[in-house]
């Protein structure tokens, strides 16, 4: 079963990729009708779709027998050329599913170790190069934040202000900026970071990084994560700008570009791995700030949420429908045959064949007084018959077997395969 673990990841990749591809295609339409806050949570939903196994709903609804990965069925891989057959046989021989599972698990461990190391470096840099805030920045902060729930630190290790901490919150403010920015600009930055704290964005970004560890191999995930980080910042901008006048809004927008340019100038200085530092992202945020779009209606938010849920469910169904193809490539137990070596009959054809062979497909256990109460379990029973022409017929029954006495109750035909040359 270990070699099949990667198959579940493959199903999730299908679900997440379809969901996020559609979200990216319509993100401008969605934003025009909602808000940056909704876009942030929509992108977060897209990231979670890479790990939520929605396809399992369809597997369970149609019972385990319809799935190769959770049922007892063994797929029959039909190939139509020597090259295709050689490829499938090679993948089956080297057990590609087990190899990819090992590579995937190794990548997760490496990503998580790097994440922890980067976080530790950030904490150490804070402890080594930061001190409790004093001077004008501290005075401005005390005027904005009256409580003691947030600690302001002045740091020489960064040119980018950021917030860190899950239980205890810290705002790390660069010493470089205190000597460059005006009092009003410092106040705007501190208000922005406090908004991040109100929305608990530091914890959410760490959670997203953990999800990224599971999907380290998927470039689609990185694209959606980038969008999530952008909309996280845009959400704070939008929240603050609701109360800003035109002059303050313009100052705030110009401040984003100024901080980005300073951060680029001092790129040799350490910064938080949670910070959004690219100048093009700042320019995009500036455009949204000056646009000052009004928030969408509740109806639009509900409608877009329902749409996203429908897309996610549809993507899960698409992943479930890929059961045969995915298991055929990565699965550990399958039969590979050449096209033309067998005929797969429909249920009606199989029933007709059974009638001509005088096989009763409606047999069941007698309701007369048994010697004990049967404990039935579902099984698949196979029947093999050689044909005079060198071929054979394989019949698969959905059946019930008593755990205690072994009595069999045949329910119906699951599948019938006719081979022109018997491979058994």
Element order, helices and strands?
A: HHHHEHHEHEEEHHHHHHHHEEHEEE
Content-based structural category: alpha+beta
Radius of gyration: 31 Å
Beta-strand portion reads: 5-15%
| Helical content (DSSP H or I, runs of 4+) | 55-70%
Q: Helix count?
A: 16
Strand tally: 10
Give the distance, in angstroms, between the N- and C-terminal Cα atoms: 25 Å
> Could you give a short account of the major beta sheet?
4 strands, mixed
Shape: elongated
Spatial order of the strands in the main sheet?
2-3-5-4
Report low-confidence residues grouped into runs of 5 or more.
268-275, 358-371
Structure characterization notes:
Helices cover 56% and strands 15% of the residues. The strands form 3 sheets. The protein has a 4-stranded mixed sheet with strand order 2-3-5-4. Helix 1 runs antiparallel to helix 3 and helix 1 packs across helix 15. About 5% of the residues have low confidence.
């Amino acid at each position: 079963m270990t070699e099949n673990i990667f198959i579940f990841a493959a199903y999730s990749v299908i679900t997440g990729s379809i969901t996020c591809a559609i979200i990216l295609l319509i993100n401008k339409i969605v934003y025009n009708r909602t808000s940056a806050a909704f876009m942030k949570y929509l992108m977060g939903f897209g990231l979670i779709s890479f790990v939520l196994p929605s396809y399992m709903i369809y597997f369970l609804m149609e019972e385990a027998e319809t799935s190769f990965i959770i049922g007892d069925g063994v797929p029959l891989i039909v190939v139509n050329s020597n090259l295709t057959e050689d490829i499938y046989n090679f993948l089956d021989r080297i057990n590609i599913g087990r190899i990819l599972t090992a590579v995937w698990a190794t990548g997760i461990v490496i990503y998580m170790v790097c994440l922890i190391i980067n976080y530790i470096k950030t904490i150490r840099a804070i402890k080594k190069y930061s001190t409790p805030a004093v001077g004008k920045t501290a005075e401005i902060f005390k005027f904005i934040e009256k409580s003691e729930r947030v600690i302001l630190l002045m740091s020489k290790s960064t040119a980018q202000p950021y917030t860190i901490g899950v239980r205890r919150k810290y705002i790390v403010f660069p010493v470089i900026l205190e000597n460059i920015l005006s009092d009003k600009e410092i106040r705007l930055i501190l208000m922005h970071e406090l908004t991040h704290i109100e929305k608990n964005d530091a914890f959410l970004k760490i959670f997203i990084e953990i999800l990224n560890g599971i999907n380290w191999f998927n470039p689609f995930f990185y694209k959606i994560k980038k969008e999530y980080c952008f909309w996280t910042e845009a959400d704070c901008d939008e929240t603050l700008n609701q109360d800003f006048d035109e002059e303050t809004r313009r100052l705030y927008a110009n401040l984003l570009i100024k901080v980005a340019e300073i951060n680029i100038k001092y790129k040799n200085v350490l910064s938080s791995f949670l910070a959004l530092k690219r100048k093009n992202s700042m320019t995009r945020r500036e455009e949204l700030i000056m646009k000052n779009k009004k928030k969408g209606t509740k109806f639009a938010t509900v409608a877009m949420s329902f749409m996203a849920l429908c897309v996610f469910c549809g993507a899960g169904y698409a992943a479930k429908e890929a059961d045969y193809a995915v298991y055929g490539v990565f699965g550990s137990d399958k039969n590979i045959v050449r096209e033309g070596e067998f005929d797969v009959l429909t249920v009606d054809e199989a029933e007709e064949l059974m009638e001509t062979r005088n096989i009763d497909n409606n047999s069941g256990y007698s309701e007369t007084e048994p010697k004990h109460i049967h404990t039935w379990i579902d099984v698949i029973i196979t029947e093999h018959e050689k044909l005079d022409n060198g071929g054979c017929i394989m019949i698969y029954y959905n059946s019930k077997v008593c755990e205690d006495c072994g009595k069999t109750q045949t329910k119906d035909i699951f599948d019938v395969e006719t081979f022109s040359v018997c491979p058994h």
